[in-house]
Task: inverse folding
């Protein structure tokens, strides 16, 4: 019985992950943001308000600086962000959102708000708290045990 439940949980996690990616991409397709991928939008969201160092952006995205540089190259060419070398340390590359990038982030955040509202619409406040608690534990597990190994492996490949 326990194995059946765990197999069901495994299937739900995998299916949910893929469905969320599909939903996010579908939300971009057919809009003026259809030249962006889900990964592109998440990079833009990571930049945030103001300037961000490329190395910090790579750390937030849990990718190498070289990978983030490729992502930023693409986003700069599409007009969603800009970059320059820091005045006080030419080794540092600063990145920021353009107006188009800010708009893309606003639209993506609105999409997420609507998605969460729809996902919890049939839940009681107690069920929402239980869901939030379970997702918090899942995230803590992933960050503590899975991500460090994946980051180490990515570093070895770079």
Result:
């Amino acid at each position: 019985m326990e194995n059946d439940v765990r197999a069901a949980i495994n299937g739900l996690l995998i299916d949910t992950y893929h469905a969320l990616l599909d939903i996010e991409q579908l939300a971009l397709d057919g809009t003026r943001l259809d030249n962006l991928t889900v990964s592109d939008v998440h990079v833009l969201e990571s930049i945030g308000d103001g300037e961000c160092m490329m190395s910090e952006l790579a750390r937030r995205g849990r990718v190498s600086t070289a990978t983030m540089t490729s992502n930023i190259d693409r986003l700069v060419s599409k007009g969603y962000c800009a970059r320059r070398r820091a005045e006080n340390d030419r080794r540092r590359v600063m990145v920021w959102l353009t107006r188009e990038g800010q708009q893309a982030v606003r639209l993506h955040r609105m999409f997420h708000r609507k998605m969460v509202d729809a996902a919890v619409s049939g839940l009681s406040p107690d069920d929402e708290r239980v869901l939030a608690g379970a997702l918090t534990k899942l995230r803590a597990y992933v960050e503590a045990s899975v991500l460090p190994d994946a980051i180490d492996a990515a570093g070895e490949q770079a």
